[in-house]
Write a structure and sequence with these properties.
Chains A, B: GO terms for molecular function: catalytic activity; FAD binding. The structure is a homodimer of 474-residue chains. In chain A, 35% of the residues lie in helices and 21% in strands. The first copy, chain A, is α+β, with helices and mostly antiparallel strands. The first copy, chain A, folds into four domains: 89 residues, Uridine Diphospho-n-acetylenolpyruvylglucosamine Reductase, domain 2; 119 residues, 2-Layer Sandwich (Uridine Diphospho-n-acetylenolpyruvylglucosamine Reductase, domain 3); 113 residues, Alpha-Beta Plaits (2-Layer Sandwich); 86 residues, 2-Layer Sandwich (Alpha-Beta Plaits), CATH 3.30.70. In chain A, the strands form four sheets. In chain A, strands 12, 13, 14, 15, 16, 17, 18 and 19 form an eight-stranded antiparallel beta sheet that branches. In chain A, strands 5-6-10-8-9 form a five-stranded antiparallel beta sheet. In chain A, a hairpin with a 4-residue loop joins β5 and β6. In chain A, α9 packs across α12 and α13 packs antiparallel against α14. The relative contact order of chain A is 0.11. At the A-B interface, β9, β11, α8 and α16 of A face β9, β11, α8 and α16 of B.
Chain lengths: 474, 474
C-alpha cells in the first residue's frame, strides 16, 4: 500500500519530487526542533494540477496531507504528527511570480514564493509589499496566508488577510477554486477567500494568491519618548493618528522593566533618554512623498505634547543612524531577555483602548501568583497586540521552578485575563498543534461548533492537516 | 396557523412590534417601487434576544424570514417574494450605538443604526466613519454589511467589509454568534465574520457590528484634468498614489461623451476646461493634518505631468466653491442622462489595470450590437469599478427599442465582456433577487456549488431570505 502510494506520488510529481531518502528533518521537525513528526512521503509538486492530483490520491487512500511552506510556524502548524502516515506537501517548488502589475497594484505569486522574494519583486516596479517579519527570508506566501501572519507592518497595512485580493486553493476533494483577478470590488455572493486565510491548511491547500502592493516610502521620521502610563501612550497614539493617519507606521510600547533588562544585559544598547522611564514608546512615521516634511511636523507635534505634559521626555532622531539606535533597543529585547532569565511570552490581543486595563490586571495577577516574576511589556500598541512577558530573572531570589510547567501555568493565567478583557490568546501566531486545547477551552461553544461543521463540510474525511486547530479525530 | 404565528410574534416583540394594519408598503416594496412583495407579518424586534426568538419561531413553522434594514437595495435584496408567507424582520428599532470608543477607533452599533447617525457619532469624538453613499440618510448598518456596500470612500477606505471588526449574528437556528470586541489581530481559527458580510441575509441576521473609525480630514485639494485615454488616466493614478498614497480619496474617470451630455442637458453645469476633453478625471485629495500642504503639492505634481504631456490640461481648485463645481459635474451625471435618453448602467469591475482594455472591448461590442447606442463611462477608476452606460439619446435616430428588453440584452452583452476580462458583473450592488440568474450563469460551478453547500449547512430549512442569491428552493 505504501509502495502503491509512493509510486502514485512519483507518477504525479516526477521522481525528483518525492523526498524519500536523505535528510528529511527540515520537513518533519519544526524550525526550533521542538516537535518531531513522521511522514510516509514528502512531495514537492510543481503546479496546481500536481497539487490537486496529490490531494486526490491522498483522499482515495485516506492519507493525511500536511501542507507546508517555509515551516516557520510558531505553533507547530506545518509539521506532521508523529505516528501518522502523512504526506508532507511542500509548496517550495511552486515559487513563480505569475504576474507583477504596477498599475493594478497587484502581484500574483505562487504559494512557495519566499516573502523576501516578494519584497524584491514589488521594489522592482517601484512599489512595496508591506508585510515584514523575522523569518522573511524563509517564510512563504502560502504559509503566511494560512496563518494570517502579522508582523511589524500590521499597524499601517493590516495583517496578511488585508493584503489578499484572492486565492487559488485546492480543496480536499481535489477541485480547484481560483480567484486571482485582483478585483477591489466584487459582490458575487459569499466571500470564500477569507475562510482559507488563517485556516492553517485544514480546509485545503493554498497554491497561489493575488496580493496587494502599496506605494513605496521615501520620507520618514522616528522618535523615542517617555510617558507616565499605558493610558498616556494610548492618548498619544490617538492624537498622532488624528494628525498623521497612515503615516504612523509603528508605535511600540515598552515597559521600564524591559528597558532596564536590555541596558543591564547589553551594555552597548542604551535608551536615548536621560533617565530610565516607567514607559517608553518608539515611533516610526513614513510617507511616500519625499516632500512630506515628516521630521519637522513630528517635532512640532511632540513639542506641543511636551508642553502639555502628555509626553514626559522625548527625542526625535536627527539622522538615520540615530533612528537605528532607537530601533536597536526595541529589537534587542529577545536577546536581552534570554540572557537575563527565563520568560514566558504571550501573544495576546485586546481592543486597543483596553490595553491599559489588561496590562494592569495581568501584571497584578502575575505577581500575585508568582511573586518572583517581573511583568515585562512589549506591545504593538496600535494593534492592541501585547507580548506580555513573565520574566524570572536568574539573579533574583525565588523558588525552584520548572520552566515548562511555569510556562503552561502562566499561559493559562494570562489567557484567561485576556479573555475577560474581550481579548484573544492568539493575536498573530495562530493555533497550530500547540494551542488546540486552549482553542477548545476558551472558545464560545457555538462558534467552535460552527468552525467544526465547516471543517466537516469541506473536509469530510479529515485528511487536511489533522490535529491542527482541532484535536485529532474531531 | 397564521393566527398562532401572529400571536407568537406579538408575544415576543410586544403588540407595537408587529405591523399588521396601516401602510406596510415601505416594508413590502422596494424603494423604487419596482418589486411588490407579500408578508404574513412585519415585525420590529428591539433586542438580539427578540430577533433570536423570532427566528426560532419562524424556523419551527418553516416560515421564511426576510431581514430588512433601510430597504435601499439596488437589487431587491430586502423585499419579500410575492406569494410567500414570509416574515419581514425589520431591524429599525435596534438602532442603539452601544459603544463609541475614540482610543480604540471603534464603534459598536446595532443593525438598525442609520448611516448618517453613525457619521454624526464618529464626528462627536473627532473621528470619521468613512463610508458614504446617496442613501446615507436611510441605509442601515445591517444592510450595509449584508450587501458589503461600496460608495465613494471605497478607493481610500475599502468597502464595508474593510470597515468591520466583527459582528453579532443570529443564526438560522436561533443561536447567537458574537464578536464585538473590535480586535485588530485575532487568529483563533476560521474567520466567520466574512461569511456574513455580503451574504445578503441568507445565512443569518446581523444584529450588531463593531466598526472601524478613521481620523477626520482637515486638509484637501481638488483637480479636474484631461487625459488622452483611459490608459493615461491609469498611469496618472499610479503616479499619484506613489506620491500621495492614502491622501488620494477619489479618482473618477469620465468619458467626453458623458461630459457632453451633462453640458447639453444642464446648461448651468460646465467643465472647467476650455475644450471638451476625450477623457477627464476628477480628483480629490484629503489629509488629517491641516499642515499637509496638499494644494501646493498637487500643483507641483500636476505641473510636472503637464510638462511631460501625460496630462493634457488641468485646473486645481483655488477655493472650496470651485472644487464644488468640479464635483457638481460628476454628481449631475444621473440627472443629465435621464433627460438625454434611456440608458442601461452596468456595475462591472475589473482589475484596475484592466479598465482600459475592458472599456475598449465593451464600447466596440456595444456599438456593433446597437449602432444607435453611445458608450458613456463613469468609473471609480481606483477601484476598477466601471459604471459603463449604454445611452440611447432621444434626439438620435435609431430603431424603435423596448427599454426593458434592451437593458437585458445590454447587461448580458457587457457582463460577458467583464467576465472575459477577469471581472465581476456585480462590483458593489450585490445580487439580491435581481441577478440570481446571472450569478448562476456566470459563476464557476465549483464555487457556486460550495456557496450552496455553505447555505445548506447554516440554513438547512432554507428559511433565511429565500430567493436571494440562489433561486427559490435551491
Amino acid at each position: 500500500m505504501a509502495d502503491d502510494l509512493l509510486g502514485g506520488l512519483a507518477a504525479i510529481v516526477g521522481p525528483g519530487g518525492v523526498v524519500t531518502d536523505g535528510d528529511r528533518s527540515r520537513f518533519l521537525n519544526d524550525w526550533r526542533d521542538k516537535v518531531h513528526g513522521d511522514a510516509v512521503a514528502v512531495v514537492l509538486p510543481r503546479s496546481t494540477e500536481e497539487v490537486a492530483a496529490v490531494v486526490r490520491l491522498a483522499a482515495s487512500q485516506s492519507v493525511p496531507v500536511v501542507p507546508q511552506g517555509g515551516n516557520t510556524s510558531m505553533c507547530f502548524g506545518s509539521v506532521p504528527h508523529a505516528g501518522d502516515r502523512s504526506i508532507v506537501l511542500s509548496l517550495s517548488r511552486m515559487n513563480a511570480i505569475r504576474e507583477l502589475d504596477r498599475e493594478g497594484s497587484a502581484v500574483v505569486a505562487e504559494a512557495g514564493t519566499v516573502l523576501a522574494t516578494l519584497h524584491e519583486a514589488a521594489e522592482s516596479v517601484g512599489r512595496q509589499f508591506p508585510l515584514h517579519l523575522g523569518a522573511e527570508g524563509t517564510a512563504q506566501v502560502g504559509g503566511l496566508i494560512s496563518s494570517n501572519a502579522g508582523g511589524t507592518g500590521a499597524l499601517r497595512y493590516g495583517p496578511m488577510r488585508d493584503l489578499v485580493f484572492g486565492l487559488e486553493v485546492v480543496l480536499p476533494n481535489g477541485t480547484v477554486l481560483s480567484d486571482l483577478s485582483a478585483l477591489r470590488k466584487d459582490n458575487r455572493g459569499y466571500n470564500l477567500n477569507h475562510l482559507f486565510i488563517g485556516a492553517e491548511g485544514t480546509l485545503g491547500v493554498v497554491t497561489a494568491a493575488a496580493l496587494k502592493l502599496h506605494p513605496a516610502l521615501h520620507a520618514d521620521a522616528d522618535a523615542f519618548v517617555s510617558v507616565a502610563s499605558p493610558a498616556m501612550a494610548l492618548e498619544l497614539l490617538a492624537r498622532m493618528q488624528d494628525r498623521f493617519d497612515t503615516a504612523v507606521q509603528a508605535f511600540e510600547l515598552l515597559s521600564g522593566s524591559q528597558i532596564r533588562i536590555v541596558e543591564d544585559m547589553l551594555p552597548a544598547v542604551r535608551s536615548p533618554l536621560a533617565t530610565l522611564p516607567d514607559w517608553a514608546v518608539v515611533i516610526h512615521l513614513g510617507d511616500p512623498d519625499h516632500q512630506a516634511g515628516l521630521r519637522e511636523r513630528l517635532e512640532d507635534f511632540l513639542s506641543g505634547e511636551l508642553s502639555s505634559g502628555r509626553v514626559l521626555d522625548g527625542v526625535v532622531a536627527r539622522s538615520t543612524a540615530q533612528a537605528r539606535e532607537f530601533w536597536k533597543l526595541r529589537h534587542s529585547v529577545t536577546e536581552a531577555n534570554l540572557k537575563a532569565g527565563f520568560g514566558t511570552t504571550l501573544d495576546a490581543s485586546v481592543r486597543v483602548s483596553a490595553v491599559p486595563a489588561f496590562l494592569e490586571a495581568a501584571s497584578a495577577a502575575l505577581v500575585e501568583a508568582f511573586p518572583d516574576a517581573i511583568p515585562v511589556v512589549v506591545s504593538h500598541l496600535g494593534d492592541g497586540n501585547v507580548h506580555f512577558i513573565a520574566m524570572f530573572l536568574y539573579d533574583r531570589d525565588g523558588p525552584e521552578r520548572d520552566p515548562a510547567k511555569t510556562a503552561d501555568d502562566v499561559q493559562v493565567l494570562i489567557n484567561d485575563i485576556a479573555l475577560a478583557h474581550g481579548g484573544s490568546f492568539s493575536a498573530e501566531h495562530g493555533i497550530g498543534r500547540k494551542l488546540v486545547g486552549e482553542l477548545k477551552r476558551l472558545s464560545d461553544p457555538n462558534r467552535y461548533d460552527l468552525m467544526l461543521q465547516i471543517k466537516h463540510l469541506l473536509d469530510p474525511a479529515g485528511i487536511m492537516n489533522p490535529g491542527v486547530l482541532f484535536p485529532p479525530g474531531s
